[in-house]
Structure formats: structure tokens, C-alpha cells
Amino acid sequence: MHCAQYTAGTCRSCQWLDKPYATQLIDKQHDLSELLGGLEVGEWREPVAGQEQAFRNKAKMVVSGSVERPLLGMLHRDGTPVDLCECPLYPASFGEVFRHLKTFIARAGLTPYNVARKRGELKHLLLTQSQHNGGLMLRFVLRSETKLTQLRAALPWLMQQVPDLQVVSANIQPVHMAILEGEREIALTSQQALEEYFNQVPLFIRPQSFFQTNPQVAAALYATARDWVAERDISSMWDLFCGVGGFGLHCAKPETRLTGIEISAEAIVCAKISAEKLGLKHVEFQALDSTGFATGNEQVPELVLVNPPRRGIGSELCQYLDNMAPERLLYSSCNAQTMAKDIRELKNYRIERVQLFDMFPHTAHYEVLTLLVRV
């Protein structure tokens, strides 16, 4: 993959871009095997890869420059801006959207936030695309509500220029820190969720809910989890750290008793809509802390699926699951280091199979799916 910014040395986010893609996969598989060293693995599945470029469904752009000539991209630590509108990780359609957004910023008078001076209003633009129908969600991250009236007044022009825009909101992030977004979200359109489909399963993306950024590989990950669970007649399962419900909704059959737990209320709203569309009658999604829910529950499902953030599930939940001892654990991880640490604490389980999913080409990061079976 060719990237002008990488060649110029102005952006090195894709640290492995000089490395042939086949070598990247070999190195990631080697890293995973090193992390699981000393643990018996029943079966190593071949890594799953997708496109090498234009695979991202989301752009997170720092806004800098001036209101007349905004830059969308990133800032180096010394404050030097880099425009990433032509980043080859984004689909080609994003380029036209970025062009209209630059004009819109000037029309609406949204002054880019200047980090050094702590002045200005517009901090970030967050753009997400549905692969299902091409619909777009756009979030303006603002320092305050000062420019909201101007933004609302100019928005019809932007909606006309970018007809695929379906969901627009303003996020208020008043803190002078490297924090992407704040807690408060203000809807600017009546529609507040993008509809997406992975493997004929409807999923919904709301402004503050997490969603995978590589749809092609994410669909393969969900389908694999579904297939592994389907090998056994599972009647009850928990989906902890469930997000918008992608794993549980893929794995649940009409008769399955599924409980999905996620701390984000926005994500739970999405999961409930999906379950209703699928006609699942024995599904319950709750906005709770996953560890708190599990450790306070005496029921033992046949399968527990965990998809934690990078920190892993932690010692408390590991110890509880090890003692509770459901028949199977399915662990999806975006950080194999913490996953390996967690698995070593699960003394009553063995690894039946493991598979790497390359969600993040040209970087050292990857996703892993591991099936653990009670000894």
C-alpha cells in the first residue's frame, strides 16, 4: 500500500507499512504463539485477513488550522498538523465528504480549537459509515455549546451536499486534555443510529457506542464465534462486555437464553433494537458493569463469552469464572498480552482452539478468538 504521508515521514501511524503484508501476518502469529508459550493449545487456526487498504469504516479527525482553511487529520506532539483526508485506510468516498466538511466549517464559523492557545471551539470530527447502505454518522466534538446555533443553521446545506448523512450530533468536550470526546451528546438529526448488517444480523451504531472499525474482518470474527458455539447445543450463555451485542446476537438461537452485559447504555439501546428485529424472545441486555454482574450472580450458564477492552477481564472476574466453571469460555481480545495473562489465571480450563484476526493491518495490533473448555 502506498501512502504519501508515510513516504514523506509526516505520519507513521502504520508502523509496519514497509513490511510485506504476508510477513506482517507471520510476525503477528509468532507474537501470539510467544504470548501463549507454555500453554497447551489444541488447535491453531490460520489467521484471517481482509483488505490491506480502504478497510476502515471510521475516521477520527483532529481539526486544526483556521476557520477559513481548516486541516483535518492529526497533530504531532510539537503541535505540527498533518492533513489525513487522503489516508488510504479510508474508503474513497470519505475524500469528498472531507472536502464538503472543510467548506462547512467556514460557512458555520466553527473555529478550530488551538491547543497551544486553548482557544477555539471545534476539536474533532468523527465520521462513521455503514457498509449496509452507505449511510453516514457525523459527530462534531466541540469545546462548548457556543457555536451550536450556528452549526444548526448551517447544517441543512451540509445535508444537501452529503445526502448519505443520516445521523449528526454534537459532543461537548470542555476539558483541555487529549480526550477524544465528552459525556454529553446533543442530537442534531431525528435519526440517531446507523443500521449495519454483518452476516444477516442487524446491528446498530449510535454516537457513543463502540463499533469495530474493520467491517470485513469483524464479520468474519462474528461468524467464526457463531460457528464455534453452534458445534454444541448451548441453551444458556452470557455475553460480557457485549457492546452492541454482535457476538451474542450471532451465537444465540431462537431458544437460547442470552444475557448481554455492557457498561455503555448507548450500546445496550442498540443491542435491544437488534434483538427485537431478530425476534429473539429469551434475550436480556443490561447496562451494568460486567465484572459486578458476573460476581453477583449465582447462575451458571453453559457458555460465557467475553470481549473486554484492552485491559482484559482482570483477576477478579478470572477467579470467579474459574470457580463458577461454565462448560465453555469464548474469549475475544484486542490485546493478546492481557488475554494471555487472564488465561493463565483460568486454571480449570484448557485452550481448545485459537485464531488470529487481522483487524489492524500495517500495525502490530490484532484481534484473537480463543475457545476455552473446562478440564
TrEMBL record:
InterPro entries xref list: 23SrRNA_MeTrfase_RlmC (IPR011825), MeTrfase_TrmA_AS (IPR030390), MeTrfase_TrmA_CS (IPR030391), SAM-dependent_MTases_sf (IPR029063), U5_MeTrfase_fam (IPR010280)
Short name of one Pfam family: tRNA_U5-meth_tr
Keyword Membrane: no
Reactions performed catalytically: uridine(747) in 23S rRNA + S-adenosyl-L-methionine = 5-methyluridine(747) in 23S rRNA + S-adenosyl-L-homocysteine + H(+)
EC number: 2.1.1.189
UniProt: [4Fe-4S] cluster binding residues: 3, 11, 14, 87
Enzyme class per UniProt: transferase
GO biological process entries: rRNA base methylation
GO molecular function: 4 iron, 4 sulfur cluster binding; iron ion binding; rRNA (uridine-C5-)-methyltransferase activity
UniProt cross-references to CDD domains, sorted A to Z: AdoMet_MTases
Keywords associated with the record: 4Fe-4S, Iron, Iron-sulfur, Metal-binding, Methyltransferase, rRNA processing, S-adenosyl-L-methionine, Transferase
Positions annotated to bind S-adenosyl-L-methionine: 212, 241, 262, 307
Active-site annotation: 334
HAMAP family: 23SrRNA_methyltr_RlmC (MF_01012)
Annotated PANTHER family: RNA M5U METHYLTRANSFERASE, TRNA (URACIL(54)-C(5))-METHYLTRANSFERASE
Record-stated family: Belongs to the class I-like SAM-binding methyltransferase superfamily. RNA M5U methyltransferase family. RlmC subfamily.
Record's function text: Catalyzes the formation of 5-methyl-uridine at position 747 (m5U747) in 23S rRNA.
Protein name (Swiss-Prot/TrEMBL): 23S rRNA (uracil(747)-C(5))-methyltransferase RlmC
